[in-house]
UniProtKB/TrEMBL annotation:
It comes from Penicillium daleae. Residues 50-401, 502-755 form the ABC transporter domain. It is a multi-pass membrane protein. InterPro entries: AAA+_ATPase, ABC_transporter-like_ATP-bd, ABC_transporter-like_CS, ABCF, P-loop_NTPase. This is ABC transporter domain-containing protein. It is found in: Membrane. Residues 412-441 are annotated as: Disordered. Gene3D superfamilies: P-loop containing nucleotide triphosphate hydrolases (3.40.50.300). One of its GO terms (molecular function) is ATP hydrolysis activity. Keywords: ATP-binding, Nucleotide-binding, Repeat.
Length: 757
């Protein structure tokens, strides 16, 4: 059994990080290093390595994702975190949420939505309880208000009022203890609660003692001793035999239990539960839940709806820092637009700091005020949204490139002049010329480089080169593109004779005879080179339609015709999950081994490696890394390679962007735009549909130079591609005359109504 990887986080430990116990919406941590390592590997390494005397600190073994970085988040600002797959974004977010970074105070309230919820043995799915109703699970997720909040009927014996309310586990235990006839029950309850509190205090005391030094460290160590003594005392009292508890102790503990219960009830009353319930219902409706489903158990939901429930549980809280890792996964376009508007409103009404990761460019642009870029294990910051960042990046690349070219020309001229001067000086024994050449060489070595300082001022020797360690100006560095590895699709197989690739005529479909029609009189014809986009809300039947197109299920009524030589490459919603399951069942299976088996000798190893390389998978990744250990983005590339090796004339892609970062989405859009076959694209990603299906090079989103859009198409082809965006609604397939924009505007109106409720 393999142990879970361990996240090790260190930073420059400053006394100001933990001066008090106040929560903070602001983070300022210097020298941050994050390493991820297997606990089993660490223990094996430690056991096998001999101990070295005089070496007090050893560098943590494992893969270092972030090194000597400065993490800086201002309070109340909405940040977008950018970085390629595998750079450590999700690990950073997990470290922040678990307070593994010393600079984040323990009392800071952090709420996190991870990319996937994990079902555990105790009946939980992430922060949700599977045995609770949807509404109850969302309301019970706020761990800062209640360690575990639950809906229960509680009878208060002091007021004899029967109420149904939200109570903490502590309050429920204390209330039930007073309901019994046993006078020792309140004593047992309060001692158990005191033990749990002592455990928490001891953990915090250890943390403070480890992080503080000097006078504060001395006080922290004294506090640690006090906490240890208190823990020992509380533990003894908890384990005491009830028969040996004297009457005075029973009276004291009973009084403490009553006071604690009263305090907890006052805290619950101060939470404004009615507003919290109303907000939870509003969020669930916005995310697509129906009011009649609020009382369903979480365990009855599919994985996608559980993730929506998890998202609602994060939004309903009022944390100091909200972390959202791919929140648009499993949301349809209506949910995405609703979430955009909700977070925009939150920016005006709350001081919560938001840090989010998303592959949806339009979503990042709408929500984020500033951008954090994780690259080369460091953070860089940009004030503005993604569109502004990309525009600034391109301008900087052009400006720095021209500056470097001019610098190289000037340097080449000066070096040529130096050579001529030295040659002339040696020939005539002219010491003045030799001194002149030496002076010029010193200028080339020490004073050539960046002409502008980091603050935008012109370079000055006494200001920008202060200090004995600086001997020359900084080199001119041209920003390099941070897009993922490029992707290229093979040319299609020749059809030999013309005709439509696939034709749907009067297609009806229902899962039960005489049941509700999922598809109602659908007509669609696709020829070679066509671009067809299919959009719609979740549950509208999009996946059912593409499965009929692909021949996986027959229609209830109507006719499906295909070209006799048609090859279809089908990427389904669960293609990545299928690969993950295959990887778990065959732990040693690699991408190279998988394609070798599936191609059945039609491709040799060199051809398979070339195919995988064209998808962005190359080198040891394809031959040495098991499929089970590939990232989500790498699995998408492998799934694409599996469907294109036969050179299909038609690609059917159903929600292909779910596991990709936005750099890879850009590379994919470029590759699909130049594909010479037909494409049927089912997606909620507005950028991808606009670029691939409509052929638009968005002014806000920089595509690669080899992107083939409408303008290139008109200049090179006499008959342009057919480009159509359809919306599937109530079983009908309706073409949108204005494409994505028309569908988006219709959803914005619905969202505005939902937000007013």
């Amino acid at each position: 059994m393999t142990s879970a990887p361990t996240i090790l986080a260190t930073c420059k430990q400053t006394r100001f990080h933990l001066l008090d116990g106040n929560p903070s919406t602001e983070i300022d941590v210097e020298g941050l290093c994050i390493t991820i390592a297997s606990a089993a590997a660490d223990s094996t390494d430690e056991a096998s390595k001999p101990k070295i005397k005089g070496k007090s600190k050893a560098k943590a073994s494992g893969k270092e994702l972030i090194s000597d970085a400065h993490l800086r988040l201002k309070g109340g600002v909405h940040y977008g975190l950018l970085g390629r797959n595998g750079t450590g974004k999700s690990t950073l977010l997990r470290a922040m949420a678990d307070k593994l970074i010393p600079g984040i105070p323990h009392v800071t309230r952090v709420a996190i939505l991870q990319q996937t919820g994990v079902e555990d043995e105790s009946g939980g799915y992430g922060s949700l309880r599977l045995d609770r109703t949807i509404l109850d699970a969302v309301l019970s997720s706020d761990e800062t208000r209640n360690e575990t909040v639950r809906t229960a009927e509680c009878e208060n014996t002091y007021t004899s009022i029967h109420i149904e309310t939200l109570v903490t586990d502590e309050e429920l235990v204390l209330s039930k203890s007073f309901d019994t006839e046993d006078p020792l029950e309140p004593v047992k309850a309060i001692r158990k609660i005191q033990y749990q509190q002592a455990e928490l205090n001891l953990f915090l005391a250890h943390k403070n003692a480890d992080l503080k030094s000097g006078a504060r460290g001395f006080q922290a160590r004294k506090d640690l001793k006090t906490a240890e003594a208190n823990m020992e005392s509380v533990s003894e009292r908890l384990s005491q035999d009830p028969e040996n508890i004297d009457a005075d102790a029973v009276q004291v503990d009973t009084q403490a239990a009553a006071e604690t219960l009263q305090t907890l009830q006052s805290q619950i009353e101060d939470m404004n539960l009615a507003d919290m319930d109303k907000e939870a219902r509003r969020i669930l409706l916005g995310l697509g839940f129906k009011e009649e489903t609020f009382e369903k158990k979480v365990s009855t939901l599919s994985g996608g709806w559980r993730m929506r429930c998890l998202l609602a549980s994060v939004l309903v809280q009022s944390p100091d820092i909200m972390i959202l890792d791919e929140p648009t996964n499993y949301l349809d376009l209506l949910g995405v637009i609703w979430l955009e508007n909700y977070l925009q409103q939150l920016r005006e009404t709350s001081e919560t700091t938001i840090l989010l990761v998303s592959h949806d460019r339009d979503f990042i642009n709408a929500v984020c005020e500033e951008i954090v870029i994780l690259r080369d294990q460091k953070f860089t910051y940009f004030r503005g949204n993604l569109a502004a960042y990309e525009q600034d990046f391109e301008e900087q690349k052009l400006y720095r490139g021209r500056m470097k070219e001019a610098h190289e020309r000037q340097k080449a001229q000066m070096e040529a002049s130096i050579r001529e001067t030295v040659k002339a000086g040696k020939k005539t024994n002219d010491d003045n010329k030799l001194r002149q050449a030496k002076s010029r060489q010193k200028k080339v070595d020490d004073r050539m480089g960046l002409q502008v300082s980091a603050n935008g001022h012109r370079f000055k020797l006494n200001r920008d080169m202060a200090g004995y360690f600086l001997t020359s100006r900084a080199e001119i560095e041209v920003p390099q593109d941070e897009r993922g590895a490029s992707m290229a699709l093979p040319d299609v197989t020749d059809l030999r004779f013309p005709g439509p690739l696939v034709s749907l005529e009067g297609i009806n479909f229902s899962y039960q005879k005489n049941g509700r029609l999922i598809l109602d009189d659908v007509h669609l014809v696709v020829h070679i080179g066509d671009r067809v986009g299919i959009m719609g809300l979740n549950g509208s039947g999009k996946t059912t339609l593409v499965r009929i197109l692909n021949g996986q299920i027959p229609p209830s009524k109507g006719k499906v015709s295909t070209h006799p030589r048609l090859k279809v490459g089908y990427y389904g919603q669960h293609s990545v999950e299928e690969l993950q399951e295959r990887g778990r069942s065959e732990p040693h299976l690699t991408a190279l081994g998988l394609l070798t088996a599936e191609t059945q000798g039609h491709l040799d190893e060199g051809a398979i490696r070339g195919l995988l390389s064209s998808m962005g998978l190359a080198g040891r990744i394809v031959s040495d890394v098991p499929v089970a250990k590939l990232s989500g983005g790498q699995l998408v590339r492998l799934a694409l390679a599996r469907i294109v090796w036969t050179s299909p004339q038609l690609l059917v892609l159903d929600e292909i962007t779910t596991h990709l970062d936005f750099h890879t989405v850009t590379a994919l859009a470029t590759a699909l735009s130049s594909f010479n076959g037909a494409i049927i694209l089912v997606s909620h990603d507005r950028f991808l549909v606009r670029s691939v299906v409509e052929g638009k090079r968005d002014t806000e989103h920089k595509l690669d130079e080899d992107f083939e859009g409408v303008e290139e198409e008109e200049s090179t082809e006499s008959t342009p591609r057919r480009r159509s965006v359809y919306v599937l609604k109530a079983g009908k397939l309706n073409e949108q005359s204005n494409g994505v924009e028309q569908f988006e505007k219709s959803l914005v109106k619905r969202v505005q109504k939902l937000l007013k409720q």
